[in-house]
Design a protein that fits this description.
By secondary structure, this protein is of the alpha/beta class. It is built from 12 helices and 12 strands. A hairpin with a 6-residue loop joins strand 8 and strand 9. The chain binds pyridoxal-5'-phosphate (PLP). Its EC number is 4.4.1.2.
Length: 366
């Protein structure tokens, strides 16, 4: 199958900072009458004899997004139809019957995929407490792939990525980090010797709650070729419009993440004082905060119906603030508190966010 090299290759970039890379990577070259943005190329097929040939093998709009995310993560990127399509493609690297180690509080869809694969005898899974580094290192011994998510969703636990990666590599296992929550601005796993980075580009990367897309990034050319081959074969490719939207969103990633993080940090300071809450979980960075209502699930459900600004919705990483009681999903593990509400803090004014949330919380205790 043809090599994917159709898109305008980005001109070699100097040693620019991430915010400059987010704005400049994946653009056409600076020549007269070139558009500043790679256009939306609607094409199922191409004139024969070139590098692309067919719409499942490549598209210039995907490639522009891939160049930009690859530059931010420090590797080569492949985009997928969704985050879970990327997860499935990576899990398929594991041989039949081999063992995968994963956090028990991984993204729920990832845990469900692992359970499905295990139930069909495709692989074995060992779910671990990702904060217990010694236990994770021990679990690595006979593993083929170690899946990491840090922070985890929605428990917001942090893994010791470097120590676990050394142990996994000693065992000959691949290490994958789902970097959806941190984004490459707050965490660059490939620099910690991790083999593969996975993203739900649906979340912070695109950032406007209007597109589903996923990505895998690696600095290993062999792994890139294997995954590209799988994508060609299975066809879990992104839409052209989605790729355009995701890249357009990526241009402001640094501003959005900075603002969401600043808002989250301020809200955490204020929430910690509130009597309606038993717990506020925040790893210190990023825009996701989990709060646990002292009065449990009913109070949490009530909270999600009492606000005007905060929207009750699943998903995260958009410009708008959303929140959700995670245990409303039957598949959410019982180790997640029943009254836990995950906040995805947006980029609105922090005082407006606080007034709306505090008003609803006050009602619960008042
Ligand atoms: C949403 C999410 C996914 C799945 O991505 P989709 O784009 O919804 O398929 C995977 N990992 C994490 C951490 C997520 O938040």
């Amino acid at each position: 199958m043809p090599e994917d090299s159709s898109a305008p290759q980005p001109s070699p970039t100097p040693d620019w900072k991430p915010s400059t890379v987010a704005v400049t990577a994946g653009r056409p070259s600076h020549e007269p009458d070139q558009p500043l943005n790679v256009p939306i190329t609607m094409a199922s097929t191409y004139v024969a004899g070139g590098d692309l040939e067919y719409g499942r093998y490549g598209n210039p709009t995907w490639t522009a997004f891939e160049d930009a995310l690859g530059a931010l993560e420090g590797g080569r990127c492949l985009s997928f139809a969704s985050g879970l399509a990327a997860v499935a493609t990576v899990l398929d690297l594991v041989g039949n019957g081999a063992k995968v180690v994963a956090p028990r509080h991984s993204y729920n869809g990832t845990v469900l995929q692992l359970a499905d694969l295990e139930s069909r005898g495709r692989l074995r899974t060992e779910l671990v407490d990702i904060t217990d580094t010694d236990a994770v290192v021990a679990a690595c011994a006979d593993a083929a792939l170690v899946w990491l998510e840090s922070p985890t969703n929605p428990a917001l636990e942090i893994a010791d990525i470097e120590t676990i990666t050394v142990a996994a590599h000693e065992a000959g296992a691949y290490v994958v980090v789902d970097n959806t929550f941190a984004t490459p601005l707050l965490q660059k796993p490939l620099e910690l010797d991790v083999d593969l980075v996975v993203h739900s580009a649906t979340k912070y990367l695109s950032g406007h709650s209007d597109a589903l897309m996923g990505a895998v990034v690696t600095s290993d050319d062999e792994l890139y070729a294997v995954l590209k081959g799988r994508r060609d074969l299975v066809g879990a490719v992104p839409g052209t419009l989605e790729s355009y939207l995701a890249l357009r969103g990526l241009r402001t990633l640094h501003l959005r993440v900075e603002r969401a993080q600043a808002n989250a940090q301020e809200l955490v300071r204020r929430l910690e004082e509130h009597p309606a809450l038993a717990e506020v979980r925040y790893p210190g960075f990023g825009g996701i905060v989990s709060i646990v209502l002292a009065q449990g699930a009913m109070a949490a459900d009530l909270l999600t119906r009492k606000t005007k600004l905060w929207v009750h919705a699943t998903s995260l990483g958009g410009v708008e603030s959303t929140f959700e009681r995670r245990r409303r999903w039957k598949s959410e593990p019982a180790t997640i508190p029943d009254g836990l509400v995950r906040l995805s803090v947006g980029i609105e004014d922090v005082d407006d966010l606080w007034d709306d949330l505090r008003g609803a919380l006050d009602d619960l205790v008042g």
